[in-house]
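Hypothesis: this fold can be encoded by more than one sequence.
Test: take the structure tokens below, design a sequence, compare later.
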């Protein structure tokens, strides 16, 4: 019919065996992992790497927050919620 077929698979690095037998049967093998190209070429497929998109307003680098040391809380259970809250900056806590 002249319509190209595309096989899309997004777990090529870790589970390529699930797509290896059919990848070359499609006209194009769309993969999202940069390093998967050699796997597709090895089975005779025509790979196309298209990274999955992400909204830059949501997914972007953010400054790292300072890290504070944490320790296990082993006080009597009745005070445990207050002790845990104090680890996150709460200055007062009622039992």
């Amino acid at each position: 019919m002249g319509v190209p077929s595309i096989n899309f698979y997004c777990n090529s690095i870790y589970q390529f065996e699930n797509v290896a037998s059919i990848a070359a049967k499609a006209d194009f093998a769309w993969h999202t992992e940069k390093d998967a190209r050699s796997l597709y070429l090895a089975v005779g497929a025509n790979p196309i790497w298209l990274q999955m998109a992400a909204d830059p307003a949501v997914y972007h680098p953010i400054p790292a927050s300072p890290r504070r040391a944490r320790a296990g809380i082993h006080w009597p259970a009745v005070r445990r919620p207050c002790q845990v809250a104090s680890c996150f900056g709460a200055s007062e806590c009622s039992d």
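Strands lie at 6-9, 28-31, 47-49. Residues 6-49 form one domain.
Hypothesis status: open.
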